[in-house]
Fold these 2 entries.
Entry 1:
Amino acid sequence: MSDIGAETWIMHGTLLGWWWNQKAREVILPWDSDLDVQVNEPTMHYLAKYYNMTEFHYRLPGITNGRTYLLEVNPHYQNSSVEDWLNVIDARWIDTETGLFIDVSTVRKNWTAIEDGEEGALMVKDKHHYRDQERDIFPLRDSYFEGIHVKIPYEYTWLLEEEYGKKALTVTMFEHHKFNINSKLWEPVR
């Protein structure tokens, strides 16, 4: 999304996949069915105003003609309530050939936590919360995922442990897969 002036970073299962495979081919976890990215609130407003329902052609390594993605912004993206569980995803980039998608969630100020004295607290409609934007997310770090340049949150280890627990970064058996420390890939258990 940097091509259209939108700062984004990988999160959730996508960030966990990056964690496990960052020293190898940086592949998506085999049991994950989508990619997850986040943007800040001004960026989501920008995407909604200028790019909603537009197609973007992206050249990808190893794919001769690249892929075309449609950006669909949820009409409820401005609703920041965590009670509206049907609308926790604010936008999606949808691959027009395969239907696979990239979920886009908005990180916004957590006014309840700020009123309770937690300066800089942030939240997402899916009930994820962040202590301090200057410590947890920013400054973003540069990295690669699936051979593509991406941004990752500054405190990625803390964020992954907070979301998935410490064992998610050490347990090498999950969802009928075992992590091969030599190939750096999750392989099916037979």
Entry 2:
Amino acid sequence: MVSDLDDSRRLLDSSRSSIDGLDAFTARSLERNGSCVLDAESADYSDTSSMVEYKDQSSYDRRSHGKKRFKCSWLALNRVCYCMTLFIFLLMAYTLGLSTSIRRAKFGVANQDHDSAEWVKPEGFKIVGLVFYGRPRYVSILDCYLKRNLAINGGYLDEVHWMANTDNQHDLGYLDTLVNTTDSYKAYHLKHLGFDSIWKHAVDSNTLYIKIDDDMVYIHEDAIPRLVQSRLAYPSAFDIAANIVNSPLTNWFHARTGAVLPYLPEPSLPHNHTFQDPTWRPSSLPSYSLPVDSSYDFGDLEDDHPVPSVGKPGAPPYHNHRWLPLPPSPQNLEKTPIARSAYDAFGLAWTSWAIAAQQHYSLLSRIETNTIHKYHFGDSEGMWDMQYDRYNLNFVAIWGHDVRANLPIKEDEQELTSDIPKRLSRPLLVDTRAVVSHFSFGPQKEGMRETDLLGRYEALAEETVCLGRRVRDY
């Protein structure tokens, strides 16, 4: 769509150049031949006596006047062509621009560049957020982002369905309080707990469901509109997923697009350190000043081994610790955890709390410096075909009729991102412009809890989307 606008602008520029060229050519012609209208009038009509005098002169050459009249006619035709060319170029530019407007209206986007798009919610179907609920500490952050995206607040989500995957009474009590804050929230208590149980509730044929994990701690303001737009624009895809920060597969790309920055954990508790609520901005951090030990064990352990206690080898250095930036360079990046990531759904980027922490600090830096575009990859529209590779199901848009047609779903992530798309020849696509952040996977959670990152995400949400509400008072 942006390329269409660029084509339109290039066409207008071309038309201006062509018209300027015609104008200059006409001016040169007039300069060479004089003012044909005035010369013709002075020769034939301005003075009757001069006409008689000319007739008496044997040297009068009628053919010369015929040639001048021909030149005048040619110049007049030239001006007509000038006007017609201008009209045709403007018509083509208008048609191309109108085509772009129609496409954007169809996909729910206002008629302007994506970088500053004002999104227009499409009509004719319902859009429902489907949240797998169970952890209030994360949900207190997610709540702010979802409320910003509610249709009643100018967003896309008509409703949010909270699918309770817990029997903890305190957590269920928090959910009951949460759904009473807006009529757009609805709670569903699952009879059978587990990742697969929510899908039998997502089968309305005229509903687009956006499945969201409860530990999504950042949702870019354009992420949900872009997913909906892309879901409409690519009907042959089975589902459309967001570009997830802290996902084993997209992490690998982020390290190669320049999105990830070199960070290392602060080795020890600094003198006179106070555990106050942190600012979310990494620019307030001091630089990492110690020699970099590239052989440091960051606790890349298997799923069935716990992260060692704080301060032990392979463990976080101290409770609520922070990470410090190194000067950005490929050499320094190679000395950080992200260098050990691989394109593997169950590789180190799935188990390592350190790779997760570096990803999150990099994202906060990109938010602060307004360089989120560093996460974008794929084709000219920012789309990436997963080629039936398994992808994380943390944030994905899928039609209810596609879910219903493929029930029962037992192992949802494998089936919905790989097996079913492959069987139907309808791949999962990632909209890399829809950037979201997933806090941690199971093997990462113990190490991630020892960082100060959750406090930083709380501070970010409070400042940008929570409208003055203190997230930490949940």
